[in-house]
Amino acid sequence: MSNRITITAQVNGETVTRDVEPRQSLVDFLRENLELTGSHVGCEHGVCGACTVRMNGEIVRGCLTLAVQADGAEVETVEGLSDTGEIADLQDAFLRLNAIQCGFCSPGMLITAAELLDRNPAPDRTQIREFIAGNYCRCTGYQTIVDAIEAVAKERRG
Predict the structure, then answer these.
(1) Which of 1, 5, 46, 51 is the most exposed place for a label (fewest CB within 10 A)?
(2) Main-chain dihedrals φ then ψ at residue 92, nearest 5 degrees
């Protein structure tokens, strides 16, 4: 007897229906079932932010969210936000200002930065640091990440 549950979700604008284990995390579902590997599995405790995705318009930790919770939901990953061009300016600034080194934190950092700029189009450096505080980066020291987000905020405001 199978304990699998059928879910249907909108993932990056596409309707997907799959059978999942009740305890499968959303990030594992995205990576293993849908081959969307942009979101990473880091700490598996919701602390590092590498698994950050957007669900129903809000950022969530994919490791703490169960795949069954996405049933009927709209899920957006870094691949989807990249394909739509929504984060193109952030991606460009991250590259241009060397805010990407190993790249492990980058997908979650980009989604978090997009959320910040949606909420606050003119954040100061302290507000940027506070908003991204839940996303760990072991390579950059955050300075260049803050620089990139600040640059995009200024560019978007003209």
Answers:
(1) 1
(2) -60, -45
Burial of 20 (0-12, 13-18, 19+ CB in 10 A): buried
Q: State the Cα–Cα distance between residues 118 and 100, nearest whole angstrom.
A: 21
Q: How far is CA 113 from the centre of its chain?
A: 9
Residue owning tokens 């995705």: 53
Residue type, 90: L
Dihedral over Cα of 21, 27, 28, 29: its sign: positive
The residue with tokens 């994919």 is 62
CA distance 9 to 62: 14
pTM attached to this predicted model: 0.94
**pLDDT tens, 108-152?**
999 999 999 999 999 999 999 999 999 999 898 899 999 999 999
Domains of the chain and CATH, by start? 5-81 (3.10.20.30), 87-157 (1.10.150.120)
